[in-house]
Amino acid sequence: MNEGYSENNEFCNYRSPLSTRYASKEMQYNFSDMKKFSTWRKLWVYLAKAQKELGLAITDDQISEMESHVYDVDFAKAAAEEKLTRHDVMAHVHVFAALCPKAAPIIHLGVTSCYVGDNTDLIILRDGFDLLLPKLAGCIQRLAQFADKYKNLPTLGFTHLQPAQLTTVGKRACLWLQELMMDERALRRARDDLRFRGVKGTTGTQASFLQLFNGDSSKVKALDQLVTKMAGFQCSFIICGQTYPRKVDVESIAVLSSLGATVHKICSDIRLLANMKELEEPFETTQIGSSAMPYKRNPMRSERACSIARHLMTLQGNTIQTAATQWMERTLDDSANRRITLAEAFLSADSILVTLQNICEGIVVYPKVIERHITQELPFMSAENVIMAMVKAGGDRQVCHEQIRVFSQEAGTQVKQHGMDNDLVERIRKSPYFAPIIPQLDTLLDPKTFIGRAPEQVTEFLQEEVYPVLKQYKGKTDKTAVLEI
């Protein structure tokens, strides 16, 4: 045994960083043992209620007894039972039955382990989406406010990470927003597409229930529908094996992995812009950027979001392989993998959304730095405007083009080889050739004439696409109410 180890010290056992550092309390609870096993017990209650309603000999006392002990889970006893039986569901059946002696004979009546196991997983997936969607809406809301605020502020656009035509700070934020909007749609669809496994029996044929109801197929179907409604689902799978189709996990985790890609792109952009000192994520007054370099303001929130998003993006592969290796009606090699993958995907998604919202609430923009960067590059970008102005003033386009080409090369040499400012404009001002357009030069170089319809595009996008979606989440986002629209 390692020195310092103690069985009773939680700090001597592995603890997931998703629990101790990153994910929210509500998402942690969603994947907790208490949520899982109390949901098993609720499902046994739903089953008993539905069976009673359809004529089986089950009493109100038995149901009340079960309902009164839904949250009285003795985890130690259940663990001891599982050690003996090597079966988690039967261990909990025994522990629950000991608490409910009247109901003991009818607990788990006619069902297989997947009745509680798989149906609980589907409830947890649904509840997980219900936790994520308002948080995603919260990020969209904050970013929409940011985009609207800075829709008119020109900034350098980049293609290939090289200066390109100008855009605006708000328009760039809308590139981020658009992907988050796609993620909102995808998560909502995945959530709404979830179906209950329902009451299907060992291989999905409902044979045991047909026996319980003396061959009455209509009652078997009604039992499935009743339990499905009690669990809060609109419908259940008509066809399944012992488990719900593992393609459900593929579809659910795929949209979370895609969300991870979006957040990674947004936070990578923020990190690049922070390096250029054009903007920064929030930085607390007492925050330490580096243990060795006191001046540093590292974009640690964005780095964390990228790090966890990278893990989230890899989890989709597990679900695809699990779905591909389910033999016939099912194999158990899905179980251990799903215990890890499903929880980590939702906890990771929760973590990056909490972090992204925090970033979006406090992004700091530095217009003067942005202006300086524009000043360095805009003279090159304005060449076509200068040429057109000279042609209108009676000049020859080819002659003008050659003049601009020579001046641009000379100015580029000053910037690249000597570290000087871009002096292309000064060269034009001093050239007798360009004298006819000198009075127009400042107008020709106004950054706002290079941003096209960017401000209008931001307004149209927010009004036509973003705000209508946010209305669905009014009052439901994390910390504060949704933007009043």
Key phrases:
mainly alpha; two-stranded antiparallel ribbon; 485 residues
Rg over CA atoms, rounded to whole Å, is: 31 Å
The averaged pLDDT comes out at 90
Calculate the terminal CA-CA distance, rounded to whole Å.
Answer: 61 Å
Which blocks of ≥5 consecutive residues have pLDDT under 50? 480-485
Shape: elongated
Multimerization status: single chain
Instruction: Tell me roughly what share of residues is in helical segments.
Output: 55-70%
User: In DSSP terms, counting alpha (H) and pi (I) runs of 4 or more, how many helices?
Assistant: 20
Proportion of residues in extended strands: under 5%
Could you state the order of secondary-structure elements as H and E? HHHHHHHEEHHHHEHHHEHHHHHH
Total beta strands: 4
Strands side by side in the biggest sheet: 1-2
**What structural category characterises the helix and strand content?**
mainly alpha
Biggest pleated sheet: 2 strands, antiparallel
Structural summary, described in words:
The protein is mainly alpha-helical and 485 residues long. It is built from 20 helices and 4 strands. Strands 1-2 form a two-stranded antiparallel ribbon. It has a two-stranded antiparallel sheet with strand order 3-4. It is elongated. The two termini are 61 Å apart. The C terminus is likely disordered.
